[in-house]
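Lab notebook, bench 4. Still working through the backlog of constructs that have no structural model yet. Next entry is a single chain of 322 residues. Request: give me the structure tokens for it.
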Amino acid sequence: IVLHRHILSHVAHNIRIISRSFSTVPGPSSFRKLRRVLFNVPGSDMKKLEKATGLHADVVCLDLEDGVAQNMKDTARKTVVHALTNMRFPARSELIVRINGLESGHMHEDLKALAPVVSRIAGIQIPKVDHVGHMQAVTQGLEKEGAEQHALSSLRYFAAIESARAVVNLPSLCDYNRSVSGPSPLLDALVFASEDYCADTGMTRTSGAMELLYARSAVVNHAVAFGLDALDMVCINYKDPEVLAKEAKTGVEMGFHGKQAIHPAQIPIIMKAYCPDPALLEYAKKIVSANEAHQKQGKGAFEVDGKMIDMPMVKWAHHILR
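Model written out:
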């Protein structure tokens, strides 16, 4: 029974991935890279940046915002530009930069520093995105600073959802790409910031995170509806692997595509949670094999292990085996 529930949970999660991959909603691409782990690295810490070059997270985020002290912002910009220019990060990792928000007073200098090297990154994480103007301001700032058009056209935005207003405005935020014309960056992912959200709403943060259920569900639902990725919150209890594993498992069950990490030790735990286990692989093989046999018999629906299987499940099985 436990295995059956586990399989059904992952089946639902992976069927959703299949449908998103072939979505007709305007988006950056029909099929995107895996983003199981978004690893945050403080941009002012050269040693941590150097260590990040040896890690294998799906997304490596060089942070200019919350991970950097106010009096270290300029140092962080110079350090991040140096890293982008001189360090070699894993080819499999998407390299992005988290800038400071529009209202922080630091965003203009961030964009000024990034514009000449924007072709070296895959995306920008924009914090505190409450309305589409926050994304538009980044594009305008990069254009003003002379960022190359071809680099802008391939750039992707990761919008951080950090407030009640952002959650309420999710429909318009997620529809951002419809308003984009010309060689401009597109919105590609939503990143849920739990601690900022609690601070904004006055919620009490608990270990069970029930207070975040509505917001997390809203982020996933809107991301899927608009063909975007949804990346779950940071587990701040980074020294307890059991807490992280449980939180990551919940994220998978809720439909998130990946999760943020703040410590290298969190990466393999999150990776494991967002990968199918051996039982699922065997189940997928059974479905594919049974489908081939039943298709020859002219049957579109059939039974595997007491469960009715049709084409969505077959697509899920092929996705798992890829």
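Notes after review: Strands lie at 37-42, 59-63, 94-98, 123-126, 156-161, 186-192, 229-232, 258-261, 302-304, 307-309. The CA atoms of residues 55 and 90 lie 7 Å apart. Flag for follow-up if needed.
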